């Protein structure tokens, strides 16, 4: 979405305009996509939880699922990827550890559900998420005033 709007890659935009300009744009697009009655899956950028306004917006308007991954797992998945601007540093694993320490509490704050993604296959994770969403929307304990379990790990 954001790349369509800016007409270049996010990495290039970061280099030309800086992170704050990117965050402004991200906030604007997030608000547009989450306002209204549309349904769908929104896969946010990893840093979208940094601004409190985004966390509040997401939590109020969406069912938010935090796909939790440890820095070592993210490093394994992304070590050859050159499109993640924050990871183009000498020690990307250390950067991932720092980002995790700073962001894990923010993701938890924004999320309705936390799903640990370390071990299960993607298919298993999808099933877990679907079950959580079904549980959250079905009548039952939550209809009697109890919140659905915040973790699915
Ligand atoms: N649960 C998972 N198990 C194994 N690999 C994964 C899993 N989730 C994502 N990946 C891989 O990690 C990389 C980054 O995933 P991606 O969905 O692009 O993350 P994001 O949207 O958070 O940037 C991709 O190569 C993807 O296939
Ligand atoms: O973690 C971050 O701060 C960012 C993650 C990126 O999205 P992905 O989570 O898809 O990599 C993208 O929004 C931008 O490069 C900043």
Automatic annotation (TrEMBL):
EC supergroup of this enzyme: transferase
Gene3D superfamilies reported in the protein's UniProt record: P-loop containing nucleotide triphosphate hydrolases (3.40.50.300)
Keyword Membrane: no
Domain of life per record: Bacteria
Pfam families on file: SKI
Residue ranges that the Swiss-Prot or TrEMBL entry lists as coiled coil: none
Catalysed reactions listed for this entry: shikimate + ATP = 3-phosphoshikimate + ADP + H(+)
Pathway field: Metabolic intermediate biosynthesis; chorismate biosynthesis; chorismate from D-erythrose 4-phosphate and phosphoenolpyruvate: step 5/7
EC number: 2.7.1.71
Isomerase keyword on record: no
Keywords: Amino-acid biosynthesis, Aromatic amino acid biosynthesis, ATP-binding, Kinase, Nucleotide-binding, Transferase
Family: Belongs to the shikimate kinase family.
UniProt protein name: shikimate kinase
Organism from which the protein derives: Hydrogenophaga electricum
Lineage, top ranks: Bacteria, Pseudomonadati, Pseudomonadota, Betaproteobacteria, Burkholderiales
